[in-house]
Amino acid sequence: MHDRTMSSDDLCFDFGLTGLGGSFHGDWVLFAADQWDHITQWYGPVGADSDRRRLLLGDDVRRLVESSLSGAELNALWRLTDSNVLDGSPEIGGRERDWLERTLAPAAGTAEPHHGGAGAATAGTGSCALGTGGPETDSGVPSPMYEHRLLADDVKGLIDRLDPQQDAVGVTLPQARDALTRCAEKVCSEIAFRFLLRGFEAFGSRVSRDLYGRLERVGERFGYGPHVVDRLHYLGSE
Fold first, then answer.
1. Residue pair 169/87 in contact by the 8 Å Cβ criterion
2. Pairing between strand 141-142 and 236-237?
3. What are phi and psi of 97, to 5 degrees?
4. Out of 6, 151, 197, 236, which residue is the most buried by the measure of CB atoms under 10 Å away?
């Protein structure tokens, strides 16, 4: 999340592309005509909440679509949003970038060329990739992009803590670790961290009290509200 106008109150629960992926619970097909109808419902009625969802999703999509990640790596990240075999997020393999772009206008039929989505101009357009430049401050305070680069090593260290107790749907552990690491290095550590949280669920990984504390502290530094990380409580172990 790269918009300084957002507070932790705006980010109480998962958001952006990971929030969308997590919304595809196993029973979504009972309430939507197809995946695009579901996404339209996920946005909700026109208003501030819908605008916020579009801004946050648009920021994720722009950074991923314009990144150097391969289609297979994008697909691996997306597959982590299925927490178990009963979930049913759409298959996007082979059309990853086109599908991601279409989520920004699900009723449009065919995606238009992507230029950042609604609100992108205010969402922060600098690079979070390691080894890139970009402003260290924004109006006198550390910029989100700079802070995210500083947290990349923390996120990469947490990727190694995945401890599978079940098979994930459509992605192996090596594929997931490679895609998460590349995302943290080449796209943004904050986006990678949200996919990592989904990965703990996808693999049923055990989360010790110490590990949970580390996840919580990183989430706080990213500016999250209380329920982005705490949904992993059920994976807790001593």
1. yes
2. unpaired
3. -70, -40
4. 197
